[in-house]
Structures are given as structure tokens and as C-alpha cells.
């Protein structure tokens, strides 16, 4: 998205090239736009380091290095470091939730989210104001609420995510009926969260953006939402408009690559390169054409992954074992061995490697029971090791080029660890969990027949807004986490306990108790 004002232009998250082992492509295809012209901008904003937002190849080739970078306030310097390597030199280092005025009366504010589960160590939203017209590019950030932006005045254009951007439940080794059921639940939660954000801000106009990707490799083609599967988590903009209408939404605006919206405080006018309804009515044909046109790109990418010279076990030991030694909270949170089944070049042979969190070592699988297992091509892990990738979640896992199985609940600590395969990231994540595990949320609220802590134990969402109770179960609609209220036990993942009691029951006495640091449970 490019934002043009008389005081300057801002290019936001230009993503054109395939991401995540050539599995994700932008849809609709934007590669044929005039990027030589579009890249000549005054300001550049990258919301975070996900490779479907941070397209290094495109940034290097097409975006003016004279552009001033609006830099979110993140706990690590990775985003700035990578941009400097691409040739950018002029950075405006913003303070989260602090409005700054740029040249010509252009005002911006960036809200940075900094939990280990927000993007790759960070996600953000951009607020822009010029001459009384305000825009919020929320993108795929998930703040607990939008009150910070609402307080700055009525927003005229609200851009936000509505579609899936994850591998769940498609990659899990489950019966198809179960996958469909879980996918349907996730699809509904995605829309519910979107409606809540829209209702929070009450902007004049709503623009569905930040997804979905499309999958053009033959192996992944099934993930496109063109088969009438109610469990597909990648609904497109046309589906958004239909679902939005069901909840009374009538201010949605769909954009295609090349669409232009002129917006003022009192009016909006949008022009498109082609008819929007007709385009989505022919979605399958557009995808087929893209698949054939992009096939050489995918094949070239695949040819670059194999590195038979790499001893995978040796390199995983060298990279991961020092981090296991340093890890306290993440290692306890995982609580057991994680197994990688690496399928050889022949498609049949399998080498199984275990990351043993309690034992603090990486070793060959010894036929023991494991709670978490991933199966993928050996070549993919070879490539991760070859390029010294520090984030296997936002590379291997988002590619959907693997299958997964687990015993028991989802465990966020597994993915938090494999997102933090550098000392800088690991130390930040450990400190974040340490701080948040030690913080007691003292405020309680009443929802129905229950008194519960106000903040969700997962990522501190306000349960007075996102909490829904069904019988003795509470669900936080922000991320879909569920809790058994009588026991306080989390039903979605490990390591999160909620404080709850029935309304009318006396609050437990805390007199004489000493606060303790609560470690995540396995």
C-alpha cells in the first residue's frame, strides 16, 4: 500500500516475490505494477520482519534509498540492521504510541507490539494524519484494543487483516473431518476478531488487507480457498465482504493491485484496474494462470535448497545446544523432546533428530515417546542451516511444507523457541516471559456467573471485551484460547493458568502469602 499526501508519500510493506520456501505468493498478483515509479517515495514503513511484509529482494531493487524509514520501536535492532544492509541510511526512530509531526504537517504514530509471539519479535500498526484525515494501517497486528488510535480522533480509513496467516490446522496429521472442523472454528474466530476491531474503531471506511496468500506449487495448491471447503482458513476479500454484510457491515472497500482510493473527511472515491466482482468470480482461472507463469520461479527456488555437504545433526547441535543451555522459561515451557523427521532426497529415507529440552542436547532419536513431532524434507533444514536462519517458525513452518503431530495441547513455547535461534532473540524472549510470569494481574471482572482476572493469561487481552463464557468454559476471542474456570486450567495450551471463582463466592485470602515467580508448566 502506498499512501500519498501533499506532504509526502509512504510506501507500506511492499511484498512482491514469493516467501517461505516459495510457498506464499501475493494474491491478487502485484508483480506487474510499475514498481520503478511506485518505489520513488518519501517514506518507507515496514510493519515487521515477516517475509510477506519484508521483501528484501524487492526493497533492494525498486525502493528509493533516499526514502526515510519509519522505524517501529522494537526490542532488537534486526529490522534496522537488515534495512541498512539493503542500502537504507535515513531512519526515523519512533517511540511506540507517540505521535510525531513530519515535514509539511504530516503526522504519524506507530504502535509496536513486542511479545515473542508478535511476528518475529515484533509487529506494528501505522497511524497517519494529514489535514484532519486519518488512516490506520493495522495490517496483521493484534493489539489488545484500538483505544490508543481512537483517542487521536475519528479514523476515516481502517486497513486490517481478516484472513489466515498460519499453518494450522492444515499440516496436522489428523482425519480430514477433524481438520475441517478445526479449520471452520479458526475461520470463524478470524472473522469474529476482525468484527471486534472494526467495532472498536468505528472508522468511516474499512479495507480488508494483509491476506490471504495464494499457493502456486502443485504440492500446496489444495490450500487455496477455491474448493468450497468451509474449513479453509484463507478466505479472500470477496468472502470478507459477504461475511461483513451478515453482521451489518456496509462500509467495506476492496482494493486490487492498481486500485486507487481518494479519501477526504467527507467523501471517498475508488477506481479499479478491472471489475472487482468479476475478478473474484474468476479467481480459479486467475490462479491457474499465475501458477503456470510462476512455475519457473518455484522450480529455481527448489533447486537452491539442497546442501548435501551439511551434516544436519552436527550443525543443529552447534546452533541449538548453546541456546538450550541458556534457556530457562522456554525450555521448561516445552518440557520434553521435540522430534524432527527429515525425509531424504529419495523421498523414502528418514533421519530422525531430537531436540531434547530437558536434557539440553540435540541427538539422534532413540525410539522414546515424544509429545511434539515435525516431518519435513531434509533439504529444507539444510537450507535453514546454510543461510544461518534464526527464525525457523517464519520460514519453515509458515511454508506449510511439513506435517506435524502432537500429544496434548498446543504449546506456544515450542514455536517461541524455534523463532529465537540467536542469543539476542533468546535472551529477549526469556526476559519477556520472566517479567510476565512474575506479574500478577490483580484486577478482577465479572462475566456472567464468574469473577475472573481482567487480563487473559496468554497475551494480556482485556477479557471484559474479548472474553465469552459458555457454561464453565471461558474463551478469549482475540486468539481463541480457552480456559476451564472451576480449575483455572488452560484448555488450549500449556503454561497459562487463569484466576477465576463463581460470583458470590468469597475471594481467596492472600494475607501472609509471598509472591512467587511462576514458571511455565510442561
What is the fold's blueprint, element by element?
Layout: E1 2-5, E2 8-12, E3 25-26, H1 35-38, E4 43-45, H2 56-62, E5 68-71, H3 78-85, E6 91-93, E7 100-101, E8 107-113, E9 123-130, E10 133-139, H4 147-150, E11 157-161, H5 176-201, E12 205-209, E13 213-214, H6 237-246, E14 260-263, E15 268-271, H7 276-281, H8 283-303, H9 312-326, H10 329-334, E16 337-343, E17 350-356, E18 361-364, E19 372-377, H11 378-386, E20 402-406, H12 412-418, H13 423-438, E21 444-447, E22 450-453, H14 463-466, E23 467-470, E24 473-476, E25 481-484, E26 489-490, E27 500-502
Parallel strand pairs: 2-4, 4-5, 5-6, 10-11, 11-12, 16-19
Antiparallel strand pairs: 1-2, 3-13, 7-8, 8-9, 9-10, 14-15, 16-17, 17-18, 19-20, 21-22, 22-27, 23-24, 24-25, 25-26
Can you describe this structure in just a few lines?
The chain has about 525 residues and is of the alpha+beta class. Helix content is about 25%, strand content about 25%.
Summarize the structure in words.
Helices cover 27% and strands 23% of the residues. With 522 residues, it is an alpha+beta fold. The strands form seven sheets. Strands 7-8-9-10-11-12 form a six-stranded mixed sheet, with helices on one face. A five-stranded mixed sheet has the order 1-2-4-5-6, with no helix packed on it. Strands 18-17-16-19-20 form a five-stranded mixed sheet. It is globular, with a radius of gyration of 23 Å. The two termini are 43 Å apart.
Amino acid at each position: 500500500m502506498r499512501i500519498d499526501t501533499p506532504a509526502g508519500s509512504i510506501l507500506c510493506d511492499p511484498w512482491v516475490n514469493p516467501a517461505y520456501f516459495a510457498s506464499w505468493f501475493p494474491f491478487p498478483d502485484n508483480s506487474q505494477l510499475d514498481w520503478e515509479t511506485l518505489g520513488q517515495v518519501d517514506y518507507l514503513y515496514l510493519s515487521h520482519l515477516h517475509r510477506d511484509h519484508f521483501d528484501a529482494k524487492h526493497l533492494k531493487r525498486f525502493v528509493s534509498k533516499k526514502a526515510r524509514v519509519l522505524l517501529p520501536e522494537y526490542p532488537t535492532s534486526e529490522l534496522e540492521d537488515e534495512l541498512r544492509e539493503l542500502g537504507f541510511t535515513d531512519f526515523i526512530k519512533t517511540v511506540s504510541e507517540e505521535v510525531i509531526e513530519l515535514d509539511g504537517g504530516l503526522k504519524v504514530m506507530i504502535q509496536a507490539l513486542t511479545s515473542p509471539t508478535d511476528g518475529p519479535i515484533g509487529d506494528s500498526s501505522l497511524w497517519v494524519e494529514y489535514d484532519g484525515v486519518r488512516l490506520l494501517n493495522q495490517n496483521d497486528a493484534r493489539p489488545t484494543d484500538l483505544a490508543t488510535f481512537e483517542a487521536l480522533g475519528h479514523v476515516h480509513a481502517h486497513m486490517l487483516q481478516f484472513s489466515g496467516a498460519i499453518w494450522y490446522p492444515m499440516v496436522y496429521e489428523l482425519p480430514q473431518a477433524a481438520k475441517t472442523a478445526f479449520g471452520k472454528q479458526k475461520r470463524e474466530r478470524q472473522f469474529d476478531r476482525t468484527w471486534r476491531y472494526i467495532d472498536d474503531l468505528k472508522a468511516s471506511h474499512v479495507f480488508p488487507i494483509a491476506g490471504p496468500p495464494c499457493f502456486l506449487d502443485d504440492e500446496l495448491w489444495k490450500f487455496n480457498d477455491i474448493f468450497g471447503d468451509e474449513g479453509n482458513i484463507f478466505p479472500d476479500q470477496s468472502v470478507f465482504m459477504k461475511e461483513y454484510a451478515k453482521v451489518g457491515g456496509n462500509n467495506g472497500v476492496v482494493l486490487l493491485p492498481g486500485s486507487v482510493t481518494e479519501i477526504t473527511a467527507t467523501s471517498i472515491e475508488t477506481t479499479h484496474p478491472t471489475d472487482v466482482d468479476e475478478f473474484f468470480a474468476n479467481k480459479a482461472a486467475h490462479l491457474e494462470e499465475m501458477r503456470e507463469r510462476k512455475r519457473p520461479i518455484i522450480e529455481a527456488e527448489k533447486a537452491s535448497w539442497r546442501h548435501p555437504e551439511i551434516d544436519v545433526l552436527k550443525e543443529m547441535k552447534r546452533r541449538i545446544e548453546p541456546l538450550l543451555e541458556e534457556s530457562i522459561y522456554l525450555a521448561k515451557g516445552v518440557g520434553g523432546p521435540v522430534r524432527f523427521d527429515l525425509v531424504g532426497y529419495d523421498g523414502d529415507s528418514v533421519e530422525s533428530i531430537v531436540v531434547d529440552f530437558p536434557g539440553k542436547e540435540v541427538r539422534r532419536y532413540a525410539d522414546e515417546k515424544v509429545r511434539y513431532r515435525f516431518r519435513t524434507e531434509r533439504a529444507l533444514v539444510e537450507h535453514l542451516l546454510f543461510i544461518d536462519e534464526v527464525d525457523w517458525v517464519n520460514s519453515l513452518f509458515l511454508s506449510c511444507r511439513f506435517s506435524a503431530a502432537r500429544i496434548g495441547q498446543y504449546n506456544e513455547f515450542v514455536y517461541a523457541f524455534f523463532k529465537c535461534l540467536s542469543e539476542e532473540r533468546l535472551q529477549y524472549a526469556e526476559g519477556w516471559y520472566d517479567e510476565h510470569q512474575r506479574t500478577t494481574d490483580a484486577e478482577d471482572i465479572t462475566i456472567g456467573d464468574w469473577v475472573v482476572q481482567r487480563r487473559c493469561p496468554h497475551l494480556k487481552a482485556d477479557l471484559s471485551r474479548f472474553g465469552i463464557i459458555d457454561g464453565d468454559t471461558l474463551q478469549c476471542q482475540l486468539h481463541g484460547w480457552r480456559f476451564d474456570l472451576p480449575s483455572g486450567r488452560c484448555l488450549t495450551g500449556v503454561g497459562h493458568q487463569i484466576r477465576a471463582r463463581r460470583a458470590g463466592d468469597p475471594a481467596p485470602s492472600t494475607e501472609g502469602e509471598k509472591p512467587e515467580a511462576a514458571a511455565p508448566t510442561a
